[in-house]
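Appendix B, record 7
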Amino acid sequence: MPESRYEVLALFTAAMIGSSLFVMATGPLLPFFQSAFGLGQTQLGVVLSAQMAGSLVMTAVAGMLTDRFGDKAVVLWSGLLMGVALIAASLVHSFAWVIGWLLVYGIGFAAVTPSGSHAIVYFFKKAERGVAMGIRQCGIPLAGMIGSILLPAIAARTNYQWALAVAGIATIAACATASLLYREPVELEGESGVSVRGMLEEMVAMARDVRLVLLTLASMALVCAQFMVMAFLTLTLVHEAGLPLSVAIGVFVLSQAAAIAGRVFWGWSSDPLFGGSRALPLAAVAVAVAGLSLAFAAIAPSTAVWLIALLAAALGFCAEGWFGVAVLGFAEIGGEEHCGSALGVALTWVFVAAFAAPTLLGAVAEVHGYAFAWRGIALLEAVAIVPAVLAADFMRRFAAAARTS
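Structure tokens (predicted):
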């Protein structure tokens, strides 16, 4: 028999923390990359975009592989790929080679969300999944807190290369431990008789589901705000508010602490507050992030540090807190049998937005300033309200039809 559902949740949360250490600490590490390679704002955005490019290429494949081979195998091999890529990136001295290895890291990172989502859907009842997925997704901002404290401190005492190496070792250790200790149920070991063509046809069918399309569109807009926080919150505080780098990193860590609370809250709220809807919370988040982004665009050296910290915490709570709810929505649309395919399709498009956002926002900030970029994010989130509300309506209709059939 497999371990208890809480042990399963702990194992896959730990794997997510280890896998996300570097990507979530990329923003606070950008000043070290800038100093080492003499980079401009647009090039700094490429550091994060390269990781998302790898995820973009492989997310659909990662979803299929999880359906085919199960969570246990995928979390192990993706962790090894990510860890080796980060260690390799720490050993090269060319910026182009660093970007190349970060691309490989992103390929492995594509499997972080699909691997483990089957287990959450399987082990937890529908009324409990929101909280469970929210707790699991806390691994990403928790990695942001740990990585943003640990990795810049290592880079400051040595260089960015040692920070990369430590992140790689931690990734391998976390994923290997989760895989070795997880006793996978027979039902989740994968579908050995399914052909590649069959899996592709399954993904095409998922891609045509209007619920998945609308929920994905809302998530694409929201992930742009998330990556604005991850990549440029620290730099905004340094360049626009005039804060010392150490203080700016401290405010970023605070935003990640708030994101942890946000992921639990939005996951929990989807059941008692939003009647089991996984889309309505995204609409609420979009409204909040639009207002907060406008407020953040107005910060200046005269703005009180306590107010900046409060705004950053609120941004972390909302702009990074929504992801677990969206993932659960994708997984439930696919069901236990097609969970990986649904996640693969949806997250591929989410990673398209995540790949484009850092570079585009970096270019906008370089030409027009960070305040203009934050106002652009506010406009985008206002637009995201529409598909989120429509997705909630279609999901409600589908659930009602399923109950009557």
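Remarks on this record: DSSP finds 15 helices and no strands in the chain. Residues 5-404 form a domain with the Growth Hormone; Chain: A; fold (CATH 1.20.1250.20).
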